[in-house]
Amino acid sequence: DENYRGEREMGADVCVFSDMSTSDALQMSRRVDPRGVRTIGVITKIDLMDRGTDAAKMLMGEEIPLRLGYTGVRNRSQADIREGKSVRECLEEEKTFFATHPTYRLLPPHLVGVHSLVDKLTKVLFRHIKNFLPEIKREISSKTRVVLDRLQELGEVRPLSVFYIPTHLYTFVYTQYIHSDTVVYMYIYIYIYIYMLIC
Asked: Where are the membrane-spanning stretches (predicted)?
């Protein structure tokens, strides 16, 4: 929670856990979002719960309510990864798992599955952008005016064109040549002089 940056910069806190009763993530989310108005609970490894138990009450928000609700997902296992199963295959297996589970198949579809989670997060993001876009635009306009005012205070800029570089270099070398007896400066002086005549 020390890294919490404010309402405008975070549309939702995604709280991921596999056991609600011992979830440090859930406890931390309550510290930054005590009313539970912008936390999405993600219950992972939902297929690995003990036989005879399920997460239906958690998903329905009956234990710790969250305004944005909960979503249960079935994670890719290490075995799936070792066997080289694609993400698409694992998503199909997840879909089959929830569709055939005696409890989860009776729940509203938006409570389970990775696709449901993606849909929720997308809606939260768009709502967040819509709410704060006018404020962000005002802030950008304000800062732009400050920068433009500062530029005006600094006065007109006199850019040093690449075409002026030989002239400045010529002046410098000429000065050095006049105040020294080195042949090197003489050759450089002549070279730059010829270059300026050509250009």
From this structure: 182-198
